[in-house]
Amino acid sequence: MEKIGNKGALIVKNLAAVLDEYEDVEKGEPLDILLLPDYNKLLSLQKLPLVPDKWLALLKEFNGLWHDGAAILAVAPDGSVFGDILEYSLHDAPIPGVLVLGYDEFEYLLYDETVHKYQFYDKAEGNITYQTAEAEAAAARLLKI
């Protein structure tokens, strides 16, 4: 996996600045990076991809997020109100082998490692309606900001 560099930091900085403008955003605590090795083992055992580095940059700022009916899921959110990426990916993923990173009433936000894209899956239609390689664009679209 690629290292989180300036672009990953920029994604977090831009998104965090935009989110600070909204009063109705619920943010999780920053991700404890010490959880990642064990979490990555669990993902691998389930034959799921690892959480992309650019998405991890976001979770290191706030591990889970809620805004206007949309949720960004968390990594191992024990004691948190935010759902877990692994649990959603195992039980709610509409396509096998993808990560569920978030959702709203109408769509799931998925990450498909085979094409390196964040994808929006329409729950009612049962298909991909939008995809992007950019983590910030995916988060902004899901959160409607």
Description:
The protein has 145 residues and is of the alpha+beta class. 32% of the residues lie in helices and 22% in strands. A seven-stranded antiparallel beta sheet has the order 1-2-3-4-5-6-7. Strand 2 (65-67) and strand 3 (70-72) form a beta hairpin. The chain is globular. Mean pLDDT is 89; it is low at 1-9.
N to C succession of SSEs:
HEHHEEHEEEEH
- The radius of gyration computed from the alpha-carbon positions, rounded to a whole number of angstroms, is 14 Å
Order of neighbouring strands in the sheet with most strands:
1-2-3-4-5-6-7
CA distance, first residue to last residue:
28 Å
Mean residue pLDDT: 89
Query: What count of helical segments does DSSP give?
Result: 5
Number of strands: 7
Q: Helicity range of the residues?
A: 25-40%
Sum up the overall morphology in one term: globular
Give the class from helix and strand content and strand pairing.
alpha+beta
Taking the sheet with the most strands, its summary is: 7 strands, antiparallel
Uncertain parts: 1-9
Q: What is the assembly state of the chains in this entry?
A: single chain
The fraction of residues assigned to DSSP E strands is 15-25%
